[in-house]
Amino acid sequence: MADYSAPLRDTLFNLNHVLKLGDRAGQPGFEALDADMIEPILTEAGKFASEVFAPLNASGDRQGCTRHDDGSVTVPDGFADAYRQMCEGGWTTLTAPETYGGQALPHAIGVAVEEFLSGANMSLAMYPGLTDGAIRALVARGSDEQKATYLARLTSGEWTGTMNLTEPHAGTDLGLLRTRAEPNGDGSYAVSGTKIFISCGEHDMASNIVHLVLARLPDAPKGSKGISMFIVPKFLPDENGESGERNRLSCGSIEEKMGIHGSCTCVMNYDGAKGWLIGGEHQGLAAMFIMMNAARLWVGLQGLGQAEVAYQNGASYALDRRQGRALTGPVEPGQSADLLVVHPDVRRLLMDARAKTEGLRALILWTGLLTDLSHHAATEEERTQADDLIQLLTPVVKAVGTDIGYDVSTQMQQVWGGHGYVAENGMEQFVRDARIAMIYEGANGIQAMDLVGRKLPMKGGRAIQSFFALVDGEIADAASDGAVREIAEALGKANGELKAAAMWLMQNAPENPDNAGSAAYAIMEILGLVAIGLMWLRMANAASAAIDAGEGDKSFMEAKLLCARHFAQSELPDAGALRRKLQAGAEVIMAMPAESFLRA
Amino acid sequence: MADYSAPLRDTLFNLNHVLKLGDRAGQPGFEALDADMIEPILTEAGKFASEVFAPLNASGDRQGCTRHDDGSVTVPDGFADAYRQMCEGGWTTLTAPETYGGQALPHAIGVAVEEFLSGANMSLAMYPGLTDGAIRALVARGSDEQKATYLARLTSGEWTGTMNLTEPHAGTDLGLLRTRAEPNGDGSYAVSGTKIFISCGEHDMASNIVHLVLARLPDAPKGSKGISMFIVPKFLPDENGESGERNRLSCGSIEEKMGIHGSCTCVMNYDGAKGWLIGGEHQGLAAMFIMMNAARLWVGLQGLGQAEVAYQNGASYALDRRQGRALTGPVEPGQSADLLVVHPDVRRLLMDARAKTEGLRALILWTGLLTDLSHHAATEEERTQADDLIQLLTPVVKAVGTDIGYDVSTQMQQVWGGHGYVAENGMEQFVRDARIAMIYEGANGIQAMDLVGRKLPMKGGRAIQSFFALVDGEIADAASDGAVREIAEALGKANGELKAAAMWLMQNAPENPDNAGSAAYAIMEILGLVAIGLMWLRMANAASAAIDAGEGDKSFMEAKLLCARHFAQSELPDAGALRRKLQAGAEVIMAMPAESFLRA
């Protein structure tokens, strides 16, 4: 049976030794932070995740959600109670503004807690996760009345939120969507249409569900410029703000899926449902991207969560299961066989998993800090730099992070051999659950297009240039200690490949945009390697400094240095191969006549 | 809903244009081959696979197998009838010796048909697939009486066969197995023990099930040198060779698994079951490897089957689903959106899938031919060379082939976006089914160890040296035509990386065997790239020659040349990165203290 414990030590290492979050207490945006509270908060969050969320992960997968004939949906046994405990414990309110009952804690702490919850039970963590996106859209674009009506209840978790984007014929291409909103004449609108793949669209855990729905006004321009966003609650708030009359919307069916069975994926039917415009007319896409960008970072974090729980269970099996003997001779001759962990090829899988997972965690915690800085840093310059970096890194965190989640889950299942394929051991669920994260909130290929189409050219390439400078600067500043130097040198080479790839793109995309399309995924992967490599440089520096200062657990710090070296040796060399591949350009892949792809 | 059609054209291209199988008709080992029959046989086999096997794939997955309280197991609806049709159609007898009712056709044809069946319905194809392994072991090691009793009925499919190796504590490490066989005094043995993960161990499709069971004799040496193989039928054959008395064995339970739900995975309990020794005492491992090596090639073919069916459905979706516009401007302005296939990043996924899948098919069909040549070629030298190549390539086909199966299935699911995650569309089943092939018949890491530990050093490195010479020779002979030259040059570089990797291994493994272990997987992957690259060189040569001669479908041949170029541009560059990685050696991965792998 798979188990979960929150990666507390690694998270605290990042927050305390790498990001030095405590030093920011009291600074703009960190007023609510008390440095002494970081460890207790995370300790409690980890306990909550492993004791309340994790035990429901496998049972939730087996039982799944049930839609009844009346359109109501029941979540798996125990989910509602665990969610209630989450709300009562205040875990939904960590980073929300104090005005609406939030604790205004830094996002660096918020994402750490979200990782724990998502690693413990990805399906269950989706309900509050989606709510968080709705909160952000309302904070940014809602009217004062809308904020007053919805934000406190969403923050407390009494109500949950959803994003209603996709329609059967309109997935990536939202310009195709058909759901309509007709003015009722009283400031409200009648929303009609069918939305699919609506996560947490209907369930029995909250007294109201607040749907943020993309739809077209009657006079809307065609395509994505004619999309507006509406707030469409399941129950219309009455004059006291309580859930009142049932709105004309319902869950038509739920999907049978590969995984995340505990998270209901709903077809939502809107039949003249009453809704209210958020933001301006035809401004829905901009409002949606507020939700979406936050959601993309959060989905990257889902990849991290699955990688972490899979790694833990892969490692514990490797230290428990005995098969074969070490190549250098029996390690435990008195036992029937040695532990799996003596085998270099098993260690390779574990070290790969570790280097990717911990590197991704460092990256995600850094983006958490950057989120805080982008809103609250003291100077405009700092805020802008943080915002540039977040925008640049969002597609990388989403796509590279979820690729890592699937890859690590798969490799840790491999450590278990045949026992990893058997459902009751839990390893195969991690793979099935991790798989969706590569698809939703913009499939990973879309993230790559976002990177090359929007983020790299943004403001004349300012974000990527500032990233290059950051990496070069940190390499130059790196200590000359062995492991640190090794990762710094490998990172320097990879950064050189990234620069070469970006240069190739600048020279070849203008003449033929398909060259941007064919190179996009590889460039994103190289950027992912460099970004995570930068994290390993920082972690190696911090671990090396801690060892020198006699701080922290020495064996933990030494393991960090080994993982940094492993990342340098086993991951960063891919940057060169990826650069060579993308330089082949689009010629061959575009030359194939479409019908030649079909077997006949 | 996913669909399947046999890749007939590509298979015939390989058999006719690349392997020129028809030219061998009448040669030793190809006496039963009539060149004019190749296309009709494969056409019929393809029809059978798509019309009889494929329609049961999704329903078999949903329904799964059922074990009843009496230990009997029911397969999914329709399986038994489809299997009966398979037997009646003679599809189980293609390559079996004529003495036992086989058709003695070349294995190159046999593996082609097996791919079709496995691609159409991997679970259902396992029942005859396992039987095939049992036949091979009996042909090679059975006594005349055993052959007379079992082979005709196994060949016809009236009885099916299984391999009983794994025990709860003994998976990869068969030396740990505990099942015992006590002499009954009448030449038979009483076999007692528990076996797990027994595919097709119990079912209702055949009148008898013939288990080949590894067990220990009372005086057996410890470890893998004390293992013997026994034939233990479910029903003891009576004096007429019919199924008689029930043997003392039963299915204790079946596993709930990630996939291949239509294939029952049984716990088999032997309780003094009557069995007969196959081969000599304590010679079980050698007998098992006869089954196992054939099974490993067949499992690689399962990877091919899933890659193919996933590719077909990915490609057909890309030519059906409309989202977004081409980067170079609308291709079909009259439509709401362009087809997915206009997008370079979608084409990248399709071209990757195509290049890997068709390259793997060529490799597997070649190993089919090599199997025939290893047994029947006119000269000892030819037989030996063919056998060397098969031994060298077996771990590559198994591991690289199944990695491709999983990777391509995953990427084709990605083409479908959210619709690929929904069960009813069928894409996610391909991923779940493909996953097991990386694990069973020796997990892929074990294949890598087999390659570096046995196959590379075998006979002083004779097999790999002869492979190097073969590749160099074919590169030297390659036509100077554009696409052919491009793949030849890229292959030459990759072969250089392989030589460098092999050299590094020779220089570094003797001093520290862990260097062999840490490098094993990467070396296997490089060998896979070179072997598949060689296939693309051959296919490009053949396609180029066909175009020059005006033979065959020109658009098909042109697509071959494009895929060859894509393989050269997008796959072969990985060889260099893999070589650089493995040269880091085992130091870092072995330096981590075992307990540092645990989160605490």
TrEMBL record, chains A, B:
It is an enzyme of class 1 (oxidoreductase). Residues 163-270 form the Acyl-CoA oxidase/dehydrogenase middle domain. Residues 44-158 form the Acyl-CoA dehydrogenase/oxidase N-terminal domain. Pfam families: Acyl-CoA_dh_1, Acyl-CoA_dh_C, Acyl-CoA_dh_M, Acyl-CoA_dh_N. Its cofactor is FAD. Keywords: FAD, Flavoprotein, Oxidoreductase. It catalyses: 3-(methylsulfanyl)propanoyl-CoA + oxidized [electron-transfer flavoprotein] + H(+) = 3-(methylsulfanyl)acryloyl-CoA + reduced [electron-transfer flavoprotein]. It comes from the Bacteria. Its EC number is 1.3.99.41. Residues 283-451 form the Acyl-CoA dehydrogenase/oxidase C-terminal domain. Residues 474-593 form the Acetyl-CoA dehydrogenase-like C-terminal domain. One of its GO terms (molecular function) is flavin adenine dinucleotide binding. Belongs to the acyl-CoA dehydrogenase family. Involved in the assimilation of dimethylsulphoniopropionate (DMSP), an important compound in the fixation of carbon in marine phytoplankton, by mediating the conversion of 3-(methylthio)propanoyl-CoA (MMPA-CoA) to 3-(methylthio)acryloyl-CoA (MTA-CoA). This is 3-methylmercaptopropionyl-CoA dehydrogenase. It comes from Croceicoccus marinus.
